[in-house]
Amino acid sequence: MLRFACVVILLFAGSARVWADSVRLPVIQDNSIVMVDREWSVNAGSSSRIRIKGNQHIVALSFDLAAVQGKTITRAELVCYPAAETISAVTLSTIATPWQEMTSTGLTAGIEGINGWGYPGARFPAVSGGNAFTLVHQSEFELRDGKYHCEVPVDLIHAMTAGVAFGLALHEHETDYGRNPTIFSREQSSKQPYLLVETEDRPADA
Asked: For residue 179, which of 78, 51, 39, 70 has the smallest C-alpha distance?
């Protein structure tokens, strides 16, 4: 009798289960936004290594989200490869305006016809880090198996899939400016950053 009851419970649980999938979302743009005197106009979009260093170098990333459009996202993790020094934690935020990898700097998003980030004269901090209604979260950078793993709240991913955010900004917490922490960019073969996202298909209406 007990065995029969267990079988019934397992069958019921199996019928109610929604299958979860893990999807790897590649980075399609990355840049180190430099905010240092006399370097605000520097672009690192073509570099194979991008610096992430306190208030001076904030990494901007955007992703190919096509594989998760219309899906319920249950968990997300940013994965990237260390290139120099160590990173212990970051503040993640969404980016509130479109930008271009090869032309963006601390002074401009690199969008033709707009001299600034989203509006004339705006610098990068105006559209990230909690400004302009951007979402913010602090997360550890856990070094495991030669890669950094960083939990990303699903709300930040949903903001990007909904089209109200245009990537993530990574602000490193350490303030030791004698160091130059860097990660590998998408230009580095086999070591590109990516998002690992777990999704669930929405169940059909009964």
From this structure: 51
- Can you tell me which residue has the tokens 């893990």? 22
Q: Are 91 and 131 in contact (CB under 8 A)?
A: no
Sequence-separated (6 or more) residues with CB below 8 Å from residue 181: 51, 52, 53, 82, 84, 85, 86, 87, 172, 174
Using a 10 angstrom Cβ sphere, with 0-12 exposed, 13-18 middle and 19 or more buried, the burial of residue 101 is: buried
Note the pTM of the prediction, 2 decimals: 0.87
Reading the block at residue 171, the tokens are 């602000």
Q: Which tokens hold the place of 161?
A: 């899939």
The conformation of residue 128, written as its DSSP 8-state character, comes to: S
* Residue-level pLDDT, tens digit, the chain, 206 residues: 445 444 334 444 443 334 357 999 999 999 999 999 999 999 999 999 999 999 999 999 999 999 999 899 999 999 999 999 999 999 999 999 999 999 999 999 999 999 999 999 999 999 999 999 999 999 999 999 999 999 999 999 999 999 999 999 999 987 678 889 999 999 998 999 999 999 986 655 54
Residue count (the chain): 206
Q: Do residues 75 and 154 lie in contact, with contact meaning Cβ atoms separated by under 8 Å?
A: yes
Nearest to 197 by CA among 63, 89, 18, 93: 63
